[in-house]
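#structure-requests
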Amino acid sequence: MSIFSKIAAGEIPSYKCAENEKFYAFLDINPLVKGHTLVIPRREVDYIFDLDDDELAEMTVFAKRVAVAIKKAFPCVKVGMAVLGLEVPHAHIHLVPMQSEKDMLFSNPKLQLSQEEFENIAARIREEFK
């Protein structure tokens, strides 16, 4: 079971932003910017393009709803979407609030946030997701 499967199952704590029966969104613990969120399928699949077509489409629509909530909670020019997937063997989408394209550079230094800051960020996104 991947770390992301354990997070979605509630076995490992996370800063939940949104969820439904098929997908789970939570804050990246090494964020590029405030609001950097991960969207995963609850079903453990390593490679995003191994999801069946319907599941991939549903995940993208769910990610769009999360992105809309992020943009409301953290006003930005756009919310960028990236699929990398080498660091954890569980399909996931990164949603990153952007003021410029430089905000999507994964080589940028990561933010160091307190637990209180993470909780506040997640609460703001959850509120907008409803």
